[in-house]
Amino acid sequence: MQIKAFAAQSPTSPLAATTIARRETGPKDVAIDILYCGVCHSDLHAARGEWPGMRYPLVPGHEIIGRVSATGDLVKAQQVGDIVGVGCMVDSCRHCYSCDDGQEQYCEGQHGWLQTYNGWLDGSGENTYGGYSASITVDEHFVLKIRHQEEQLAAVAPLLCAGITTWSPLRHWDVGPGKKVGIVGIGGLGHMGIKLAHALGAHVVAFTTSPSKVQDARDLGADEVVVSRNPDEMAAHARSFDFILNTVAAPHDLDAFTALLKRDGTMTLVGVPDSPHPSPSVANLIFSRRQIAGSLIGGIAETQEMLDFCAEHGITSDVEMIAMSDIEPAFERMKKSNVKYRFVIDMATI
Predict the structure, then answer these.
(1) Interior/surface letters 65-89, b for 16+ CB within 10 angstroms, e for the rest
(2) CA 328 to chain centre
(3) Are residues 194 and 215 part of one domain?
(4) What is the DSSP string of 259-310?
(5) 154-191 pLDDT, tens per residue?
(6) Is the pTM of this model over 0.70?
(7) Burial environment of residue 333 by CB neighbours within 10 A (0 to 12, 13 to 18, 19 or more)
(8) Do residues 137 and 277 both lie within one domain?
(9) Which residue segment(s) compose the domain that 250 sits in?
């Protein structure tokens, strides 16, 4: 089945209209007409070939909200007309230790997990095409139920990546009442981290390099805001944090933040810089038994938990809607951090 899509044909070509093939609906498949697709910074990195192993034509998009148009004979959880979501994964091996534990994002199978676009994680097999398209067909296991109100759906799309990327570490490190939690960076990921940590009941401190973002962070739910370039503001929080979620995807001094952790505190990184961070001080970790950790999106059950929590608490992303034809200007603005805080494509415009 041929459908409309927007694709990069090479790392140097702009995204442009094309057609791609989607498979027919199999027994356990769900066919989805895409309503909205969030624009993740990963989409830009991938389209421009800034990461190794990118495959072309490349159709980005892994923050997908749509309506079920058909289901296979064995599908039980979804029905035609349901509003559903698809995130960063559309398959995994299903039988390794991580998959059995509901952590498909760490799949240890031969090929890793199947990305919504760009195929299997190890680069094998056929290419896959993402949500910058009119429709997608996905195995039912990787289709998520959306319980938000219809008028919120566009702002729900980024939860499929930005939401779960911040939710997973917040849950894993038991963020909640009585915990002092730092969120480093106030962008697509960071603004969701602030909202979710606040809703979980933590005392939330946002870190930004921009004084102009102080009020924005408070409006998102931060109890305090620190301008990280101000050494006095940083020093005032020394040895006080239970947990810090660092969303910044550019190389920076990690020691400045690990010094703010309590004994046994953890800073978890979710941003992947295009060049390494300066090496952190080992002594800074050893002498207070601190940890620097990492976290990758979340499993399917965990993503459903996050979506249900957000629906119950009225949480969505702050978004700016664009037409599909405006994706290249949106990419340019995103490179300059000129969006609050996530672009979402109205796929009716494709």
Answers:
(1) bbbbeebbeebeebeeebbbbbbbb
(2) 20
(3) yes
(4) TTEEEEEEEEE----SSPPPPPPHHHHHTTT-EEEE--S--HHHHHHHHHHH
(5) 999 999 999 999 999 999 999 999 999 999 999 999 99
(6) yes
(7) middle
(8) no
(9) 163-294
